[in-house]
Amino acid sequence: MADRGALPASLASRVLKAVLLILLAGALLVAGSTLYNGRLAARQSYDRILLGAAQDIAASISIQSGRPIVDLPVSAFELLAQAPEDRIHYAVRGPGGTLITGLDETEIAPTARRSGTPSGPEFFDARLNAEPARFVRVTRRFAERDFSGSISVTVGQTLRARQAMAVGLMLDTLLPMMLAGLALLAMSWAITRSAVRPLAALSEDLAGRDPYDLTPVPTEGLPRELAVMLDSMNRFMGRLDRQMEGMRHLISDAAHQLRTPVAAIRVQAEAMQDQPDEALRARALTRLLTRTRSLGALLDQLLSRALVSHRTESAPRALLDLREVALEVVERGDHELIAPGAELRLEIGEDPVMVRADAFSVGEAAKNLLVNALKHGRGPIAIGAERRGAEAALWVLDAGPGPEPAIAARLGQRFERSAGSREDSAGLGLAIVAAVATAFDGRVALEYPEAGFRIALLLPAAPDEEPTP
Amino acid sequence: MTARTALPRLIALLLALLLPRAAAAQEGTASFGSGPTDLLLRSTTDIAIIRPVMARFAERNPDLTLRYEQWGSNALYALGRAACAGRAEPADALLSSGAHQMLALVNSACAHPYRSAATAALPDQRRWRDELWGITEEPAVIIYNTTALSPEDVPRTRFALLDLMRKKPELLRSRIATYDIEDSGLGYLFAHADSLEATTFGAMLEAFARIGAIATCCSLSIIDGVSEGRYYIAYNVLGSYAEARAAPNVGIILPEDYTLMMSRSFMIPKTARHPEAAQRLLDFLLSPEAQGMLADLGLIAPTDPAETSLLPSARRLIALSPPLLLALDRSTRERLFRLWDEAFSPDAG
Fold first, then answer.
1. Superfamily classification of domain B3-137+263-286
2. Which parts of the sequence belong to the Histidine kinase domain (chain A) (predicted)?
């Protein structure tokens, strides 16, 4: 808990950051657009006021004895005072631009003078005493007996009120948005917190567990995203559990299988120590050697079994041609060592016999099948692979009668060794075959054709058109 | 521009050009304090009246020397315009009773903006653009000679004054005085406000014409004239001056139909050499202490109706806002002057 600051950013803070970013971007966008719209609205409304004032003044112009007279109405100024903080400008000019009345002698006029006299009011931007301002010019034409010509009224105003209105409109929009944003932040914080809360319970559960407890963690009531993660974690724990189980089996197998031969070797060696007779000693030595060799073979099998059970759990499945497995077993020539001179045939066809499995494990199974036949069966022996409908078979055939049905029924169990059986019995070998069959969704079949006994490893066939990687 | 309006401006301008510190055009000068920094205040307020306030300011700010120049309002305006255009020596602060003239200066971008807690506390009517501030609130009153008028004749409203002029023209012939609006910016401002305020204005001018009222200059001489019995009634006199003068035999009436209130406006020219010192002066003038002193001097009329017998609805403060610019409009002035000239023909006075 103390070093929480060093931990990577929490989910809640990431979500908050993202929400904040979205809000900021949104606020900028809204601020920009409302400021733009606000300026437009302010321009329109204040332009109307300006125009109203100009028309008020224009309406107050009269011609008296050939002279234009302006009776400036207060109402025009009160209209302009709607923008109370803005400086104003007005000028009434007769024909030729002569000033009739106004605040200032300097003429402020639209920059782009159009040819001819404009009919409607002209709005334009200009500077009023170095401050940006908005102006309108209204022209009124007189055609009296003693005066004819047009009189222009120019009214202008600085922009403070317009800007204040635009900013006010923007703030009016931003304020509710900011409130909504705050609510959104609070909500997203609360939701992330509540979604992540099961994780805390989970980690507490895991921390309090027995180190060998690999049972699945309950996933009820969790958000789907978390349940997915927990499911794969549970699967992983299951695999771990099976591996640990395998390891435990291996250790107890090894203890069980090794204790007897090692004890026997020790007894024989002790007996040899006390044997004075040379001839008897030589015979005992030969027996000891045989026992040691068979212990070696047993160890090989144990290791192979361990490897197989490890690999079937972890090795990726690849496309595999069972004919190649059979061929390899024959070519490796192990049988020459176990039973020199035995006759071994390879029976494979033209078509590939494809399965999805681990090449090493299937190879070990084939080797064990062959070794079993060599040891317990009767020559000639044949090994082969073929497609049987939906299944692919890797089989070994010998001319013997096969095992007793009672033994056959127990085949494939972990210990296939009665007290009297030999150390290098078929038990372990067939257990490996059975393990491989289970691991790759297959089975072991015992068949009794006319000319002997056949044992087959049957695996689901893979479509053979897939290329071998 | 008529010769009448152009002449005083021209004179002021020439004086300002030829004699930057002309003593001739100003009505009086005074100096307060002896600090190293000069603060030049040009004002229309009588030195004699406002002296204690200025002396207190100088006392509070020993680093300043307050140079006080008293001007007529039209001359002050002309000088302000010239200074704004860089044609005359600028003042650091202006304090004028011609609110419309100060407003015009601000409208022409001649002012320096300033904002403080004291200025922000002012009501809207006494502030414009944070460039112009109303320091005082002084009523335009009717004064009368208490011995010449019997109590039942004392006019409490403009209508009563009109009635009195109609009923006793012989008593009042050449005995009514008011400011000459051509000489006095303040007089013009009051007349302009009257012309906007009520239809009585036309009737008033007519009655003035009928009984031969006198248009003359300067608050103090009018007040003294009433006190001495040369005039029986004076219309639109600055109440603060009448109060301060405390002349014998002078009664003061706040007209009950409406009483115009004028606020002396303070402005810091943008060409001021010591705007910071001027801001201190402004904050001081708006401080409770100075406002209290101004109220004691009669420059801030009490707002309590019990004290003034004036209903709040009858107070018409001339607001510092754009419509006041109308007072300076050439055609508006011409029309008002024409009406005035018809009422006060030269041989009438």
1. Periplasmic binding protein-like II (3.40.190.10)
2. 253-463
Would you say the ipTM is above 0.85?
no
Q: Per residue in A159-188, is it b (16+ CB within 10 Å) or e — as a string?
A: bbbbbebbbebbeebbeeeeeebeeeeeeb
d(C-alpha A179, C-alpha A172), whole Å: 12
Q: Which residues in A lie closer than 8 A to residue B335 (C-beta atoms)?
A: 71
Per CATH, the homologous superfamily of domain A316-469 is Histidine kinase-like ATPase, C-terminal domain (3.30.565.10)
> What CATH number should be reported for the domain whose range is B138-261+328-343?
3.40.190.10
What integer best gives the mean pLDDT of chain A?
A: 82
* Residues of A contacting chain B (CB within 8 angstroms): 69-72, 74, 77-78, 80-81, 84-88, 100-104, 128-131
Q: Residue A4: which pLDDT band, with cuts at 50, 70 and 90?
A: very low
Diameter over CA atoms, chain A? 168
pLDDT level of residue B349 (50, 70, 90 thresholds): very low
* Residue at A91: amino acid letter: A
Pairing verdict, β A344-348 and A381-388: parallel
For B104, which residue in chain A has the nearest alpha carbon? Answer: A103
CA dist., res. A418 & res. B24, Å (int): 143
The arithmetic mean of pLDDT across residues A161-179, rounded, is: 90
Residues B322, A103: C-beta atoms closer than 8 Å:
no
User: How far apart, in whole angstroms, are the C-alpha atoms of residue B226 and residue B224?
Assistant: 5
Domain spans, chain A: 13-166, 212-314, 316-469
Torsion of CA A454, A460, A466, A468, to 10 degrees: -60
Q: How far apart (Å, rounded) are the C-alpha atoms in residues B321 and B324?
A: 6
Return the domain boundaries, chain B: 3-137+263-286, 138-261+328-343
User: Which pLDDT belongs to residue A116?
Assistant: 53
The two three-digit tokens of residue A136, written as one number: 């309108």
- Answer whether residue A412 shows pLDDT above 60: no
Q: Break chain B down into helix, strand, coil percent, rounded to 5.
A: 50, 20, 35
* Lowest mean pLDDT, pick from A98-107, A416-425, B1-10, B287-296: A416-425
Q: Is the pLDDT of residue B5 over 60?
A: no
Say yes or no for a CB contact (<8 Å) between A100 and B322: no
How many whole angstroms separate alpha carbon A290 and alpha carbon A267?
14
- Assigned CATH topology for domain A13-166: Beta-Lactamase (3.30.450)
Q: Which one of A104-113, A284-293, B35-44, B216-225 scores highest in mean pLDDT? A: B35-44
Domains B3-137+263-286 and B138-261+328-343 share a fold: yes
- CB-count burial class (<10 Å; 0-12, 13-18, 19+) for A7: exposed
Contact B87, B16 (CB under 8 A): yes
